[in-house]
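Trying the structure run again after the queue cleared.
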Amino acid sequence: MDRIDAMRVFVAVLDEGSLAGAGRRLGHSPAAVTRAIAFLEAHVGVQLLHRTTRALRLSEAGERYAAACRRMLTDLEEADMLAAGERAAPRGTLTLTAPLVSGAKVLRPILDAFLDAQPAVRARLLLLDRPVNLVDEGIDVALRIAHLPDSSLIAVRIGEVRRVVCAAPAYLDGRPAITRPADLAAHRCIAMTSFGQEAWTFAGAGGAAGQTVQIAPRMIVNSIEAATGSALEGHGVTRAFSYQVAEHVRAGRLSILLAQHEPPPLPVHLLTPEGRLLVPKVRTFVDFAVPRLKAAFGQLALPA
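Done. Tokens:
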């Protein structure tokens, strides 16, 4: 059995989450998929996958081997595309990642439109609120909301988002005013696991030094939908990215608080590993998505 083909099967099993799914994607029988995995395990001399009737799980060696396989297959694809040059049309599977909310709300509609325009391209969109190693996990394009460390990744800035504190007018009515961060001590707070469960950090007004305020949240959630839902129903004050609550603020269902104490906005970038822009499906998607993402984040911006 050809080792490169077996690697493709191995990666397809991981992407699809099952032997049967990999077989359907590649047009292989279940027996052929099983043989490919067995061939690789015999070749490297260790078990790569732990298989049960319900799930597949990578072994420790399998995790390292999977990352190496993805890098090798990506390099082979890039070599093919470079040889084909400008004659190569966008094709194959485009793998993207984004945070849960921005991926579903902003990136997914743009990806749908791209796939409509490029019938030879398939896509895998991984919505993950965790850091992703683009090279090791075989990612072509990533949407990131954060300050970026120095790296070899190619970054295109598409906008910025604010970290805002907000509450429903019905909650604020009749309660003590919130004009400085310390006032939050007298209020119910709905905390997000990703925005600080015990303390919220603010910038100082008028250029003063920043400050961290201890909060005693009445509820802690790991979903922005749950946090904003509770705030919309008047149960307390929460913190979110501006694009996550923009429609509610514009409709008057939520009010922005402490705007003068907000930390500096976070940049939004579209990232690709070095060299991936030479692949037609990636280059075409980036050219397609960048102006649309800039417009989408611009529309979701809130007035300062």
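The mean pLDDT is 88. Worth checking whether this holds up in the mutant runs.
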